[in-house]
Amino acid sequence: MDLVFDSGSRVQGSEFINSIRGDKMSSDKPLIGVIMGSVSDSDVMKGCMDLLKELELPHEVKVLSAHRTPDLTREYAVSAAGAGWAAHLAGAIAAHTTLPVIGIPIDSSPFKGLDALLSTVQMPSGIPVATVAVGSGGARNAAVFAAQILALKYPDVAEKVKAHRNRLTEKASKKVDVWPS
Ligand code: RP5
After folding, report:
1. What pTM, to 2 d.p., does this model score?
2. What are the tens digits of pLDDT across the range 117-175?
3. Which one of 6, 50, 59, 129 is separated from 36 by 20 to 30 angstroms, measured CA to CA?
4. Which residue, judged by its Cα, is nearest atom 13 of ligand 1?
5. Which of 38, 69, 119 to mutate to test the pocket of ligand 1 (most atoms within 8 A of CB)?
6. Binding-site residues, ligand 1, Cβ < 6 A
7. Could you give the 3-state DSSP secondary structure of residue 3?
8. What's the CA-to-centroid distance between 36 and ligand 1, angstroms?
């Protein structure tokens, strides 16, 4: 696979790019990079990490900011990026890689994430960021979506995604008749 340009050779301290190039999933090499703009985003982003753990998907987590640590951010390529305010973190990451980038708008601002949503979703033509819902629901969906992308390559990830969907269906099925008539 030769999709990663430029940043792949510059990534330091991250096994992410090399491991995604292999054909077999290894339990100790990260396939998904999760980044958040600030430690203050961790309450929202925890849902993403929790779900990646539940799906047993090897991942690594970095706190990188497009405006506070721009050089470090440029050297990293990632699948799921969460940022609040109009930080534009996911777009800044997407500019440096051809790997798919999933943006999670975080509701940490006075505008409750509307600014983050617009700065994440409104990428100009040519450099996409797949944007999920604002806040913790979006963080969890980013984990599932990353798994669905990897499932195209790894059959065992596809099985985990199906099992997760079945668990959701089973849980919801138990509540169909919960409302007393
Ligand atoms: C963004 O600014 C971060 O993603 C965070 O949501 C927001 C506020 O960051 P802190 O001032 O709390 O570090 O870069």
Report:
1. 0.83
2. 999 999 999 999 999 999 999 999 999 999 999 999 999 999 999 999 999 999 999 99
3. 6
4. 38
5. 38
6. 37-38, 40-41, 65, 83-85, 87, 106, 108
7. coil
8. 9
Atom of ligand 1 nearest to the CA of 84: 6
Region at 27 (left for phi over 0; alpha for psi -120 to 50; beta for the rest):
alpha
Structural contact between residues 120 and 88, judged by C-beta atoms closer than 8 angstroms: yes
Cα(109) to centroid(ligand 1), Å? 8
Structure tokens, 100: 């798919």
In the chain, what percentage of residues exceed pLDDT 70?
A: 82
Block residue for tokens 């777009």: 91
Query: How many whole angstroms separate alpha carbon 42 and alpha carbon 46?
Result: 6
Q: Is 146 exposed, middle or buried (0-12, 13-18, 19+ CB in 10 A)?
A: buried
